[in-house]
Amino acid sequence: MSHTGTSGQPVPQRTAEQATTPREPAQAYAELVAGNRRFVDGTPRHPNQDAGRRAAVADGQHPFAVIVGCSDSRLAAEIIFDRGLGDLFVVRTAGHTAGPEVLGSVEYAVTVLGTPLVVVLGHDSCGAVQATRAASTTGSIPGGHLGAVVDAVLPSLRRAQAQGVDDIDGIVDVHIAQTVETLLEQSPVLADEVAQGRCAVVGLSYRLAAGVVRPVAAVPAGLATVEVPTDPAAPAAA
Ligand SMILES: [Zn+2]
Q1: SS3 helix, strand, coil % of the chain, rounded to 5?
Q2: Measured in angstroms, how far is the CA atom of residue 37 from the centroid of ligand 1?
Q3: Cβ-based burial of 174 (10 A; exposed 0-12, middle 13-18, buried ≥19)
Q4: Is 0.85 topped by the overall pTM?
Q5: CA separation, residue 70 to residues 97, 174, 200 (Å)
Q6: Residue pair 123/72 in contact by the 8 Å Cβ criterion
Q7: CA-based max dimension of the chain
Q8: Deepest of 76, 145, 162, 187, by most Cβ within 10 A of its Cβ?
């Protein structure tokens, strides 16, 4: 299928990006890690961010990854994974909680859009995790709807404490792994997609200063050990 711009001329870059859109879990994971590596190295390509891409995806989307991430302003998915329009289906709440609307959004992407990978994205020094630990220590749940965030993170805190993990970043990693489990336990739809091999779920922990992601959980387990291809040297001009 060929694409043409408004002038009728071919738009080769758009076609090239579409041709490389991952359609299975391991490819999608490798693509995300490769993009994060470019971001960390200071060699981003900013793919799929031009007018041609905007036009190409206006009539439909086929994102290759769902990102269930913390709302933290320093955790912008398209930036830290060096992607663009139509690539990532992003669902964000403070502390990447997994309530009904989040689960429904994940199920929409996986079943309707055919997205092959779900990523839970947490980070060091997470304010939601810190607020939860503070609430646990003082015995005082925050007022307003912030209490709902604390309630949602509390089971992860209890699990971390049971494992003897007390530092915030250690608790964050436990919470990421717990969120992966919660998605699969609370969504039989997602669990079935994973069981059929059409989708995978991976938990990534992001470091704010370094910009790098590190896998802390994956279902199936082998996914996070996927070999990431070396980034080709000189990318074509965008
Ligand atoms: Zn956070």
Answers
A1: 45, 15, 40
A2: 21
A3: buried
A4: yes
A5: 8, 14, 19
A6: yes
A7: 66
A8: 187
Digitized pLDDT (tens) for each residue of the chain, 238 residues in all: 344 444 444 444 444 445 568 999 999 999 999 999 999 999 999 999 999 999 999 999 999 999 999 999 999 999 999 999 999 999 999 999 999 999 999 999 999 999 999 999 999 999 999 999 999 999 998 999 999 999 999 999 999 999 999 999 999 999 999 999 999 999 999 999 999 999 999 999 999 999 999 999 999 998 877 665 554 444 433 3
CA of 117 to the centre of ligand 1 (A): 21
Strand order, beta sheet including 117-123: 88-93, 65-70, 117-123, 200-206, 213-219
Token pair, residue 10, equals 């071919």
Burial 6-24 (b: 16+ CB within 10 A, else e): eeeeebebbeebbeeebee
105 Cα: distance to centroid of ligand 1 (angstroms): 19
Q: What is the whole-number distance in angstroms between the Cα of residue 182 and the centre of ligand 1?
A: 17
For the domain 20-225, what is the CATH code? 3.40.1050.10
Q: Residue 74 corresponds to which tokens in the numbers above?
A: 């320093």
